[in-house]
Request: fold
Amino acid sequence: MMDFMKIKQGTLADYPFQTAVFYDLIDENTMETLRKEYPKDNFILYERRMGHDKTYKQCGRHLIVPGENHAYKEEMLSETWLAFVQDLLSDDYREATERLIGQSLKNAYIGVDLWRFDPGSGCYIAPHADVPWKISTHLFYFVKEWDPSWGGILRYHDCNKNDDVAREVVPSMKMSPVLVRSDQSFHSIEPVNEKAPESRKVVDIVFYNQMPPEPKPGRLSSGIIPSENLID
Reply:
């Protein structure tokens, strides 16, 4: 499904921190199927106002729990999504990412989450550099189209400048960014406003250098959100 060779042959930009961007890692028809079949089960709203590396409000569910070698709630996933999970768990994907970022992932843990930023939900992520146990993050977007005026922009920040937005990434199904964690890798996501006709749906793939610890006290969470309350 995924073009591992593109990742393996990719290069990292250094400003404002190490990032890469890939186009058409998965063919258009498969991406459209994944978009249409993007899960709506087991989503929970999380919010943190203090006490961690960032503040945020996010609506998410696991796709792969760190340390597991299968999909979370795999009985709820379509065949195409299960095939995507197998790609993410493969040695080929791990080796391609390792080659790209120039770091060993032999003993790294992979964790994958689905996040949805529904219009008017107020979901956002404040500027942060990620916790030290993250190695890299790889994103796939599942949106028909996206207008920057709708919000939901991923921003890369330059910590050495007062006007610190160095780059803005507009969600697109054709484009897939990679971020390498460092003390300078500050990034953020702005809320999606009510103008957006669809949810900003994303797959967030993370390699960790240790098993992620339990969340610190202070994170608020809802129960499971009924699927009919989520926006496609």
